[in-house]
Amino acid sequence: MAKKRDFLAISDFSRDDLKQLLERACSLKSGVDRAQLTGKTLAMIFRKSSTRTRVSFQVGMSQLGGHAIFLSDSDSQIGRGESVHDTAKVLSRYVDGIMIRTFAHAEVEEFARHASVPVINGLTDLLHPCQIIADLQTMAEEFGREHAARTVAWIGDGNNMANSWLNAAYRLGFSLRLACPEGYDPEPELLARAQREADVVLTRDRSEAVQGADVVTTDVWASMGQEEEEAERMEAFETFLVDESLMGQAAPSAIFLHCLPAHRGEEVTAGVIDGPQSRIFDEAENRLHAQKAIMLELMA
Ligand code: CP
Ligand code: NVA
User: Which of 40, 102, 110, 133 would staple 47 via disulfide (CB 3.0–4.6 Å)?
Assistant: First the structure.
């Protein structure tokens, strides 16, 4: 039997795998690829809230001829403390794949170790790889498939999204400029690895990060699980918002991306997120196509 594959981080896929995955996401979107997962079932464990991830996986599975089951802490034994070990083994006897969104990245890794079916990371405190596939697809739609020729500017928190952009730069070799306030840098190991493979710069100056960039992207200042730090974070990130004057320093053809949910007037002005350079709804739609490509790759 072939060894099962998991998708816990962008770096789980080689550069060629990633390129193929993006091709497939585009073919699924255009209707050219009609592959199916007939009769297959995905279990979706959500230990944090979700709109896009939950709906795109569930709709994606149904469009592929399969079925998805939603499990949360409040209505499964996971919330009552049943071990990751037992849950992973039990679910593997029923379903063909498991998607999990949780806090500690180590929990997803432990899940993958014990599950005999593919495990997909639907977001952890460390990484959000499924979102980045959709973002790379949105970039390809705008600028073509040669990601390595582009520059991405990340403004704000060195969070799970920033870490996943680092992994994508590491794999695909595009330029990445991150502007993060002191104390909110991305994961040092992921930064160092990306810096060895690609042109990756970390700065405290948002203007420096966006000069000539093709993509300007940001995220909330307090992620899920950081609610208690909110006041302190609002102060630290005050000068790291994406506004019209910042977008004016990027390339004239630059696009704005945000994984959503967003706080208009906080990390991004309404003028930018609702403006002509914003591609946020294409990006959100692409979650569906990207998710289908990921499930086909792992579960077919
Ligand atoms: N971008 C994203 O993952 O959205 P949800 O939290 O709604 O799933
Ligand atoms: N960084 C955000 C992303 C939400 C999709 C969070 O983790 O809450």
Answer: 102
**Ligand 2 neighbour 50 (Cβ under 6 A):** no
CATH of 131-283, one of 3.40.50.360, 3.90.226.10, 3.40.1500.20, 3.40.50.1370: 3.40.50.1370
Does the Cβ of 220 fall within 6 Å of ligand 2?
Answer: yes
Instruction: Say whether 177 is catalytic.
Output: no
Residue span(s) of the chain under CATH 3.40.50.1370 come to: 10-128+287-299, 131-283
Give me the tens of pLDDT residue by residue for the chain, a chain 300 residues long: 678 999 999 999 999 999 999 999 999 999 999 999 999 999 999 999 999 999 999 999 999 999 999 999 999 999 999 999 999 999 999 999 999 999 999 999 999 999 999 999 999 999 999 999 999 999 999 999 999 999 999 999 999 999 999 999 999 999 999 999 999 999 999 999 999 999 999 999 999 999 999 999 999 999 999 999 999 999 999 999 999 999 999 999 999 999 999 999 999 999 999 999 999 999 999 999 999 999 999 999
- Fold category of 10-128+287-299 in CATH: Rossmann fold (3.40.50)
Strands (E), 13-88: 41-46, 67-72
Nearest-CA residue for ligand 1 atom 4 is 52
Query: Which are the contacts of 97, defined by CB distance < 8 A and separation ≥ 6?
Result: 40, 41, 42, 43, 117, 118, 119, 120, 295, 298, 299
Nearest one of 124, 103, 122, 132 to 217, comparing CA atoms:
132
